[in-house]
Amino acid sequence: MKAMIFAAGLGTRLRPLTDDRPKALVEVAGKTMLQRVIERVALAGITSIVVNVHHFADKVIDYLRDHDNFGLNIAVSDERDLLLDTGGGVLKAQQLLMGDEPILLHNADIMTTLDLGAMIAHHQHSGAAATLLVKQRVTQRYLVFDANARLQGWVNKKTGEVRPAGFNIEVEGYQELAFGGVHVISPAIFEALQRYGGNRQVFGIVPFYVDACRDLLINGYQPQEPYQWFDAGKPETLAQASEAMSS
After folding, report:
1. Taking CA atoms, which of 23, 96, 181, 235 is between 20 and 30 Å from 112?
2. d(CA 61, CA 216)
3. Structural domains of the chain, count
4. Range of the domain at 176
5. What are 119-166's pLDDT values in tens digits?
6. CATH number of the domain within which 205 lies
């Protein structure tokens, strides 16, 4: 099985820390975000990882080389010419990711103690095209799931915008949940992802999930056991993650 770590972002929310380094190399309690995610991925038994790069790409490449790829098989998907967003980034890395097994996708700035192996097993058992880590937390944009945890749509609570077009959010049993930046996809999803991208190189994968959810089985995943989760891409939550990881 393979994993992809999204490490290409500009890290604008973390400036000035990202003025001289990529967000993925910002430290959380003495370790870079990238190292922490790599270690969590490896803990799930995954030894083949793709890391995409754009902002200070050379620093990520040098960092991986200097750490001997942390003893794993790590390939780099180079987006120095154009930052492709998550959907475009996955398509760019397709040849590096392809195989018969599911693929774990993980944002570099998500610090979590989630049991990734259990999430992967849940995905495999479900037969879903994609399984998304979701949780109840306050945000402006929510994914909306039915009682069977199947994705039905998306809503922006600030603007009232919904997707897909004509989506009726006022259905009994629907649940609004926030995406957690960790997802598992089946290789069969690439065909639909390519159609969705069309002539576009740059597009997000979450809008794809939302627009494709009527045709593809896309599920939310809420683990039963407690776990820690931090979006370390913001100064205040970076501080919280550092405190939690220190203890």
Report:
1. 96
2. 35
3. 1
4. 2-246
5. 999 999 999 999 999 999 999 999 999 999 999 999 999 998 999 988
6. 3.90.550.10
